[in-house]
Specification:
Elements: H1 3-14, E1 30-35, E2 38-46, E3 53-58, E4 67-70, E5 74-76, E6 92-97, E7 100-108, E8 116-120, E9 129-131, E10 152-157, E11 160-168, E12 176-180, E13 189-191, E14 196-198
Antiparallel strand pairs: 1-2, 1-5, 2-3, 3-4, 6-7, 7-8, 8-9, 10-11, 10-14, 11-12, 12-13
């Protein structure tokens, strides 16, 4: 990446100019909003502001309750059940930045706007950012590799077979992203096809 671009960014920061947030608020979308430890249905009206907050309204409550909230308090109700596969943590991908493709890794996501948090190979954490799926190149799988997406099967883990299903794949290594029945998404992982078998 051009050092001059980063130098310019640092110069702007030194001058005290607030940088634009790396994401957009899902304006007009139905969402759930965390307030005082509970979730409330609402809608995103505007944003982000200079702090990266979104303006929201709460269903059934008048405009006096509208407020600017951090994106971490927003849950997008339009996200499909397969969302965990949209940002496969640990997967290597090429990521578009400033018109060029760079090797990188997906760290987490998606956030409320469907973006993935990525890191670039050979660049420090200050370059990590949230990017939209249009900037992430799909993995190119080896010839003949396939994953039975949506199929219920058994997955080998630690010499034991566990019930689960395939969410996505294959990735560039020919691996499949799987989820384990009864375990949350933090256990999802990319596995080689020799760790999969049809459910008995």
């Amino acid at each position: 990446m051009p050092i001059s671009s980063k130098s310019l960014f640092l110069a702007i920061a030194v001058l005290g100019v607030t940088a634009f947030p790396a994401f957009a608020c899902p304006t007009g979308k139905a969402v759930e909003i965390e307030w005082n430890g509970s979730q409330f249905a609402g809608q995103v009206l505007d944003g982000p502001d200079a702090q990266g907050h979104c303006l929201v309204s709460y269903d059934g409550w008048d405009e006096s309750w509208n407020e600017w909230v951090a994106v971490s308090r927003i849950t997008n109700l339009d996200v499909a059940p397969s969302t965990p596969a949209a940002c496969p943590a640990g997967a290597s991908r090429q990521i578009e930045w400033n018109g060029s493709l760079w090797d990188g890794t997906i760290l987490e996501g998606p956030n409320a706007t469907g973006e993935c948090y990525v890191t670039y190979e050979g660049w420090d954490d200050s370059w990590n950012e949230w990017v939209g799926p249009d900037r992430i190149q799909a993995a190119t799988a080896p010839a003949g590799a396939s994953c039975p997406v949506g199929q219920t099967l058994e997955i080998e883990w630690n010499d034991t077979w566990w019930d689960g299903s395939v969410l996505e794949g294959p990735d560039a290594q020919g691996h499949c992203l799987v989820t384990y029945d009864g375990w949350d998404a933090t256990w999802n992982e990319w596995v080689s096809t020799d760790r999969l078998r049809g459910a008995e």
